[in-house]
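> example.struct
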């Protein structure tokens, strides 16, 4: 074969491997779509459910937040299930949980069974939040791992957008009313039932994707692992990849104690503390307040077309995630997180100042003068700062900072912590907002500042580092910061 022909053949093979890797990452990230859709669909249905089941106060807050308890449970057990039954099987479990929840919540006849179905949906969200970044991290090469791991967050943002848009369409763009009848069923029920479609799609894709080669090698199924690797990278690189993974697995077997989540740092491994802190900070900045309560919030302070404002924020979230995907493997994780923390602190401070000027006129809360516009701009700049950095990059880091010996279990614990933090923010926001929105957003701004300091002190740059080597890099950074 001529040199030109050989070059063309390698180019074709490279393009084929690239398409395959991207295809697998996209398939796994569909779980993120369900994650975003199911967690945000409640936004447009809150007031209708309150009227339908005659609930308020703590019960209302719990009906919104109970899915997050399911998320924490699902995330906690997903890693263990993935290590025992495989990544592919756990994807299928997540799809089934989503499907059951969509049908059950859509046809709920009382607040108790509604909360049960939402809890089941939360289990599915928790499973997806762990298994998607785990699978993507284990099947893509280091050079594009950040970009493709960011697909998880992109899928989440698209899911959020789809949920808010479908909520708006079912409730009606003008004079939105989620209790109105659409094709013989209340609009809020359709908001949940539409989740059947992506659940089925995710289940189909879960049946089609191959198992993770790292899981297969851990199970001693080397021939199958080589078959999978042959579809995503050149033949001459497979032996080196298998040797690297096998060496990592052997090291794990030789030191089971290091393979656990335990360590000398308050009983846990230092790298796990870093993962836990990243997860908690991602939620304590208050991002999900925008997506769970935004429609109610903007209506409360006098904005018309609150549904459309929520949809616009979701569109912004999707758009800036594309920016993160484009630059994460060029700029790196650490500088992007630092920039995001700074941007969130400034925008949240602007919102806190704006809401400190809120006035009550004829029983309605309003923001006088330019403060309403400042609050709206601040909210969307906050979404930009989060969506381009902390949103996708925390999932990237959680997928790559843990050593292979603990990845699935540790990611499950970190994701569970994230959902617990999300639950606390979601449950407390109605009470904190009644007390003072200025105080609430000021508190979120403070957590943004703390997240900046944490990244600066403890989080290393992992751009382009081979997955088997990232854990040692993170451990070194944590040890250096502790000294």
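> example.seq
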């Amino acid at each position: 074969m001529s040199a030109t022909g050989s070059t063309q053949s390698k180019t074709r093979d490279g393009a084929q491997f690239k398409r395959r890797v991207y295809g697998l990452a996209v398939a796994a990230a569909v779980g993120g779509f369900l994650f975003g859709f199911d967690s945000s669909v409640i936004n447009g249905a809150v007031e209708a459910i309150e009227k339908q089941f005659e609930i308020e106060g703590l019960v209302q807050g719990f009906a919104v937040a109970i899915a997050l308890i399911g998320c924490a449970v699902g995330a906690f057990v997903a890693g263990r299930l993935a290590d025992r039954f495989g990544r592919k099987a756990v994807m299928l479990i997540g799809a089934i949980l989503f499907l059951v929840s969509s049908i059950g919540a859509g046809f709920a006849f009382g607040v108790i069974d509604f909360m049960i179905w939402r809890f089941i949906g939360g289990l599915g969200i928790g499973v997806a939040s762990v298994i998607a970044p785990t699978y993507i991290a284990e099947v893509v090469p280091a050079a594009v791992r950040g970009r493709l791991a960011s697909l998880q967050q992109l899928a989440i943002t698209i899911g959020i957008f789809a949920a808010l848009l479908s909520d708006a369409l079912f409730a009606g763009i003008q004079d939105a009313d989620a209790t109105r009848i659409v094709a013989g069923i209340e609009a809020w029920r359709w908001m949940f039932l539409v989740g059947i479609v992506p659940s089925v799609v995710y289940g189909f894709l879960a049946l089609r994707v191959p198992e993770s080669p790292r899981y297969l090698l851990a199970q001693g199924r080397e021939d199958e692992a080589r078959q999978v690797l042959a579809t995503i990278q050149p033949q001459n690189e497979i032996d080196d990849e298998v040797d690297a993974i096998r060496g990592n697995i052997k090291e794990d077997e030789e030191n089971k104690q290091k393979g656990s989540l335990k360590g000398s740092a308050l009983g846990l491994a230092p790298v796990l503390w870093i993962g836990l802190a990243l997860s908690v900070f991602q939620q304590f900045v208050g991002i999900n307040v925008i997506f769970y309560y935004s429609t109610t919030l903007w209506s409360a302070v006098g904005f018309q077309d609150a549904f459309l404002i929520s949809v616009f924020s979701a569109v912004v979230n999707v758009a800036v995630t594309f920016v993160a995907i484009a630059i994460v493997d060029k700029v790196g994780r650490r500088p992007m997180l630092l920039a995001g923390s700074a941007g969130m602190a400034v925008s949240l401070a602007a919102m806190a100042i704006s809401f400190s000027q809120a006035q009550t006129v004829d029983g309605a809360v309003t923001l006088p003068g330019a403060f309403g516009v400042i609050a709206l701009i601040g909210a969307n700049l906050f979404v930009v700062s989060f969506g381009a950095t902390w949103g996708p990059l925390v999932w990237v880091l959680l997928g790559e900072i843990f050593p292979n010996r603990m990845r699935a279990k540790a990611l499950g614990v970190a994701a569970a912590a994230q959902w617990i933090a999300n639950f606390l923010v979601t449950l407390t926001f109605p009470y904190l907002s009644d007390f003072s929105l200025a105080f609430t957003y000021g508190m979120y701004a403070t957590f943004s500042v703390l997240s900046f300091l944490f990244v600066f002190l403890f989080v290393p740059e992992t751009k382009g580092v081979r997955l088997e080597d990232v854990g040692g890099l993170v451990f070194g950074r944590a040890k250096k910061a502790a000294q």
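> remarks
The chain has one domain: 18-209+255-482.
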